[in-house]
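Most newcomers find our protein records easier to grasp once they have seen one. Sequence and backbone structure share a record, each on its own labelled line. To make this concrete, we reproduce a full record directly below:
***
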Amino acid sequence: MGRKALVIGINNYPNSPLHGCVNDAKEITSLLKNNEDDSKNFDVREEYDIKSKDELSAAIQELFSGDDEVALLYFSGHGTTRNDGEYLCTPDYTENFPGVKLSDISTWISKSKCKNKTVILDSCYSGGMGNNPLMAECAELAKGVTILAASRSTECSVECNGHGVFTSLLIEALKGGASDLLGNITLGSIYAYIDKALNLWEQRPVFKTNVHEFISLRKVEAPIACKDLKSLKDFFTSPKEEFQLDPSFEFTNDPDEKHTYKKPYAIKENVDKFKLLQRLERVGLVEPIGTSHMYFAAMESKACRLTALGQYYLLLAQKERI
């Protein structure tokens, strides 16, 4: 049981060559192979400039064979649409047989015993992936399937500066732009990242899923230590609770320092707590009440409280979900 990925980029279309698809695929490969700390992530099979429908079909079917924990397909290349549905195009394109039909891929995926099946497509009309062929606006996804497509089933996808516009955003998301406070990057957070970056006049990404929980596609360095997140429950027992501060929490409030200081003077135990609270403030989990900075909250004996995000992570800490 492991994590495997098939990454495909096709530039070499005889009548309509592309320029960024192989670049896209190589960049995605490098990000999927390892997490940011260089630990192993996916076993990646790379396929550049596949020449035929048969080759592409065989590679995709092999990906979704077996019973792996995660099977991920990434495709960058031409896509097209016909009366009978949408296709991933191959260089042996003909008017009657342009490539591999998206509905066929859906069928192969629905029969797969892999636990999590992920499909990321940067091609024109790729939003048709997962649609019911009889009801085009309705998606039918097997359990454990997630699809992220570059554009709607009626739209083209755009290349710019040597990369697809969609994949350029995907790359930045996988580098850490879409990570949560634990350093996890999921397909849901990637979609949210890309969605916000493309306005309503541009190609629109499409996201479809039928999963019980999102898996992490890649891990990056977390902006705060997990133990610090867990410490929220040491300060707060309920979401709306306030934590009282006073000058003893501020380490510079020490008679040995050459400045004005206040009683009670700095106490090491409180100073350690306050430094932790300041780290939590820096990532948006805690905020001072009635002042703009945690320093003044301490020196003026004010309090601090959880932000909405902090309340969420408190709940996770209390339920031992982190």
